[in-house]
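Help wanted!
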Amino acid sequence: MSSALRREQNRTTGALLIPALLVIIIFTTIPALTTLSYAFFAWDGFQRGSFNGLENFQKLFAYPYSDQLFAALKHNTIAFVVIMTFQTSLGLLFAYAMFRIKRGLRLYRVVVFLPVIFSLVVVGYLWQALLDPFYGPVNQIITGIGLPEFAKPWLGDTATALPTLMFINLWRWVGFPAIVFLAGLNAINTEYIEAARIDGASEGQIFRRIIFPLLAPSLTIITVLTFIGAYEWFDLPFVLGGSNGSPAGATDTLALMFYRLSFGSIDSGANNVGVGSALGVLIFTLVGLGAAFGSKMLRKREVEQ
Amino acid sequence: MKLLRSKIFFQGVLIINSIMVLLPVFFLLNSSLRESNDFASTPFALARDPYWENYSKVWSEGSFGSYFFNSLIITGGSLILILILALGAGFVLGRYQFKGNNLIFGFILTGMLVPAKLAILPLFIQLKWMGLLDSRLGLILVYTSAALPAAVFIMSGFFRSLPNDLDNAARIDGASEIVLLRRVLVPLVRPGMAIVAIYSAIPIWNDFFLPLVFLQTPEKKTLMQGLTVFFGQYASQWGVLFAGLCLAALPLVVLYLVLSEQFIKGLTAGAVKG
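Answered by r_m:
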């Protein structure tokens, strides 16, 4: 390479790379690193006070925060297990169904994925209207088919609020795993399936023994993304239950609690940046370690094609 | 026979799912064209005689128009910035060999690991200090920074896949590096730009968390943030509320119906190889 070209390339590198790097450093790297330090200081509103070691973490695990913390953690964990079980299985079912048919495939793909492009605010309010205890069509249908005792204030009852949120989440998201699994299915070498079919394997055997193991990479990605999504669950609970996880904290999550501690709320009053940051560090560690550990474990059972 | 039965089963599964998806959407559209009182007495009736006043009410009475405009500015501004910066960085990292290339690439990728939500407090204080709190520009910069790592990753992959002969031929013809990028390579990485555009623009358009935290002035609020205000204002005016939801969802739905393949590819980029 000529030295003139090298000089020009160096200039180009500087001019094209530095702006992008600066934006990332200023608006992502620095805030991410300082968020760690925030947890170790006392705070008065948004004014930083003195260094106070692990006091914020101790407060987080003591009255009155610890009750909220464990209730929220429980809800996130339930959300992860339930979403992972139902949303992922249904996504896989839809993907496999689309893989096996030809007629209508293009249309089904578009329809399955449609809710994924909706804003969670729109989805939340749409379902709030659908589930309205008085005017909502869901309860009207339930009453109409002669089961009025099952017509409930779905989002207003502490027993049904969280399951209802998970159902709405499923409605909005299930197209995502479906499309990811479909791409995984299309990447499988059809010779394996043909060979098994000739050997007389049943549909169920082919799915269990050949297709499912070869889908492991897609399953790894979906599991990790579901894990991250479930432990950072915020938008839908906020739109439907507010920052306090109404009704009566039944839909509270770690991210909602983090938001309340960071910016205050109508019910719980002033914010506490120190304890909020401690919770932020905790969520980040939990999600980071969980995702890293999970993807390592899951990758082990992926097989080569 | 068995094959046929399973085909019918799979068709059935997909039809039921389509009904589950489309029925609420149809209900929303239908109800947005009915008078609020009619809706309250008979939620299921069809809007035979469309009541368009809901839409004109949404557009003229509230601040819906300004919310819409703000979302457009913020999403558009971020998108332009993301594309320009990702093209530049993707070009350099994907095509130049220099010391530190891998290191810088690795650094940019770590940005993908940081959830913007958890760095929200320092960002809030930092933006305040920079005079970028309650500012559309501040929001654009934060969105750009959040989307850039994935955008650079995608673009550098596209740049890397182009043959080297292209560069050398252009250089022999006397093209400078910038001309090479703009005239020769950019037209060839357009599919990558489409993926980046969809991957970044849709979450920005749909986002309400960052505006909720960063924008306080009513005139600066975005559409999704504005919807929450709007729902308080028009509580129980069902027709108007549904019309508002439809208007908020409409731009993306229309684009999706035209560009569904690109949308699906763009939004699952990162989770699907190839």
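OP: Thanks! One thing I noticed: Chain B touches chain A through 92 residues (CB under 8 Å).
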